[in-house]
């Protein structure tokens, strides 16, 4: 079991203890507005290696480097004008920008997987305070074992990684509920959406004034290795776009969808009765974990509209339903 500190109860102690464990070269589970992160000193290769070991990640994927401020980010990466406009519009918040690393940045190549770019974002609230107190960027993937569902509460982190980490900082339920949107502006000004997420693509397009390219699945896999097929996988099978239920399945329902056979569901979980995609995103991972915990052999999910946050929700669901290795 990991030690937990509730941030609302004692913010100063959470900051102090968080900084102390980070300084010792060990990862700490921290709340962010998207999902919980497993954070470590982005300049310390031993600390970063411990993230991979803790998650059981098979290969060294590049990690997102979290910054406290634009000033801190500018010490490590350079901004083209469109990326700068996106940073001004959406930071702090659930947007990650892929930016050229400065030669003098002490961010370790284990965090960037040897690329000459870094994924950078400024999170909201406590996470930014912790980074500020620590004084260095934090590399942080989602706080879950590799391939499993991301954690949106301290209890999720404890259940998945509690026997492998020292400290969980409990900031309550993650308000956004899906990971950050990842965008890369190419040298020629092409804007690429590498991962749909908490900032909806339409809002990004409005700010940059050009459409986001959604690259072919294959090249997306090379560009963002963490985007590979099976991911977010519960133990149960996952069945998408369900309009009827097979006996004993768990049901995740969006809106007031009337699903035939639902009276025989192992459990019915509402993603959002009113059909609100923001609410559905915030509940998605917890709903999948709850459905999985019911012991059902399969989780059926009703169709989710593809606009707004629906793009990120459908991306995560497609990966949860992908063939398992
Ligand atoms: O909301 C989030 O982004 C959460 C919270 C904790 O901040 N973090 C997160 O990290 O989702 P992770 O490690 O699970 O996902 C990082 C993604 C991967 O798909 C990785 O391939 C991509 O970011 N990435 C990181 N650096 C990159 C780079 N230099 N070029 C391309 N892709 C990069
Ligand atoms: Mg992840």
List the helices and strands and how they pair.
Layout: E1 3-6, H1 11-23, E2 28-30, E3 37-41, H2 45-55, E4 64-66, H3 70-76, H4 81-90, E5 95-100, H5 109-112, E6 117-121, H6 126-134, E7 138-139, H7 154-161, E8 167-170, E9 181-185, E10 191-195, H8 201-208, H9 217-223, E11 237-239, E12 250-254, E13 267-272, H10 277-293, E14 298-301, H11 310-321
Parallel strand pairs: 1-8, 4-6, 5-9, 11-14, 12-13, 12-14
Antiparallel strand pairs: 2-3, 3-7, 4-7, 5-6, 9-10
The structure holds threonylcarbamoyladenylate and magnesium ion.
Number of helices: 11
| Relative strand content | 15-25%
Shape: globular
| Low-confidence parts | 218-222
Main structural class = alpha/beta
Termini separation comes to 29 Å
Biggest β-sheet: strands ordered side by side in the sheet: 2-3-7-4-6-5-9-10
What's the β-strand tally? 14
Determine the mean pLDDT.
94
Radius of gyration: 19 Å
* Helical coverage, percent range: 25-40%
Largest sheet properties: 8 strands, mixed
- Bound ligands, named by name, code or SMILES: threonylcarbamoyladenylate, magnesium ion
Report on the architecture of this protein:
It is a single chain. Helix content is 33%, strand content 18%. With 325 residues, the chain is an alpha/beta fold. A hairpin with a 5-residue loop joins β9 and β10. Residues 218-222 have low confidence and may be disordered. It binds threonylcarbamoyladenylate (TXA) and magnesium ion (MG). Threonylcarbamoyladenylate is lined by residues 32, 34-35, 37, 61-64, 94, 96, 98, 112, 115, 117-119, 140-142, 179-180, 182, 194-195, 223-227. Magnesium ion is lined by residues 141-142, 150.
